[in-house]
Design brief:
This protein is of the alpha+beta class and 379 residues long. It is 24% helix and 28% strand. α1 packs across α8 and α2 packs across α8. The chain is globular.
């Protein structure tokens, strides 16, 4: 009888699961520090089944929470370092507006953090941003440091830099299971087993399933389906800022100006969409009722856009119960995720934080609110 051949277990220093902005930023941060690492992605790089694909995202300092304002200020520095290293523009500065009752809370948080901002009266808006309509007597908060992140290009740059610095990037490598084994962790893939000193799990909507037997308190992470639509500007010469509506009730709309590869101005609602199993994607179905609401919003608030939308897209949010991220370590496992629809702007900073955790260091940002053990995060 021929003895069975047992495949050798590959031993690595750090394994990162997931090549979205968080996992890729972690890989780039570790590579830049000379740490041997492998990045595992179950699909092709840049795939459209998660949360990091597409042309653009908003970058902003404006939050109603001073903690996130401070993080955004530090993240801006991290984006600047990434741009310099990549040798290409990844953040286009446009300025940003906040409208609605929630804008006052944003102004208070900006003031507490010493971030410059100003209010624009309704009469000032037509000359400054003619494509946006103000209601009689309305004022909007303006913050000059807002802009547009070139999302797809940024993730590709992170891959390129991580690879340059020695990170092994393996697309089409699905992680089937994760098992802590003392001071190390075993990852099972169709190609064989990998034993890592530390595994960073940053797989978006797949995180909860991957962590089911890997950590004591499995975080409740809900994948929801989001949709967006592009609209054409009536006049190419108009300046467009980012815009976020903070209403007392109703949909929380946001707009992203044309930049990079975007075919038009992006208009979408930040909502908890329909819960989905991310493994059932990619998703193409569009909620017609929400489409109609978007066109009504454009007619009402954005006269500088042609009100017939085009180019509908979908993506996933991975929601936590409190919409704070998960950035924590348990034994040899580091967890990064729960972006809840607002993590991309912090991408390079979150990568640096997760790299710190993987190396046993404390993070630059206090992370109590991002803990695996916080109340309500686990079932």
């Amino acid at each position: 009888m021929t003895p069975a051949i047992v495949a050798a277990v590959e031993r690595v220093e750090i394994a990162i699961v997931g090549s979205g902005v968080i996992g890729s930023a972690t890989a780039r941060a570790l590579g830049a520090r000379g740490v041997p690492a492998v990045l595992l992605e179950q699909f092709d790089l840049g795939h459209a089944r998660g949360s990091s694909h597409g042309a653009t995202r908003i970058f902003r300092f404006s939050y109603p929470d001073p903690g996130y304002v401070r993080m955004a200020v530090i993240a801006r520095e991290a984006w600047a370092r990434l741009q310099d290293d990549a040798g290409e523009e990844l953040l286009v500065m446009t300025g940003g507006l906040d409208a609605g009752p929630g804008a006052s809370a944003c102004a208070a948080a900006l003031k507490e953090c010493g971030v410059q901002h100003t209010w624009l009266a309704a009469g000032e808006l037509p000359a400054r941003f003619p494509g946006i309509a103000a209601r009689p007597g309305e004022r909007m908060l303006f913050q000059a440091d807002s802009g547009v992140l070139l999302a797809g290009r940024a993730v590709a740059a992170l891959h390129r830099l991580a690879s340059r610095d020695g990170v092994s990037i393996r697309a089409q490598t699905r992680v089937l299971g994760i098992e802590p084994q003392g001071e190390r962790v075993l990852l099972r893939t169709p190609a064989g087993e990998i034993s890592a000193r530390v595994a960073v799990i940053a797989a978006g909507g797949w995180n909860e399933a991957l962590l089911a037997r890997a950590v004591a308190r499995v975080p409740r992470l809900t994948a929801t389906l989001q949709q967006l639509r592009y609209f054409s500007p009536r006049t190419a010469s108009d300046d467009w800022p980012t815009l976020i509506e903070w209403p007392a009730e109703g949909l929380n709309w946001y707009i992203v100006p044309v930049a990079g590869d975007a075919p038009g101005v992006k208009v979408a609602a930040h909502i908890r969409g329909r819960t989905v199993d991310p493994s059932a994607g990619p998703f193409s179905e569009i909620d017609r009722a929400l489409e109609d609401e978007a066109e009504k919003y454009v007619r009402r608030r954005l006269p500088g856009l042609v009100p017939a939308g085009f180019g509908a897209e979908t993506c996933l949010y991975t929601m936590t119960c409190d919409e704070h991220f998960v950035l924590d370590r348990e034994g040899p496992i580091v967890v990064g995720g729960g972006g809840s629809g607002h993590a991309f702007k912090f991408g390079p900073l979150l990568g640096e934080m997760l790299a710190d955790l993987a190396l046993g260091k404390e993070t630059r940002i206090p992370r109590q609110r991002f803990s695996l053990s916080r109340p309500g995060l686990s079932p």
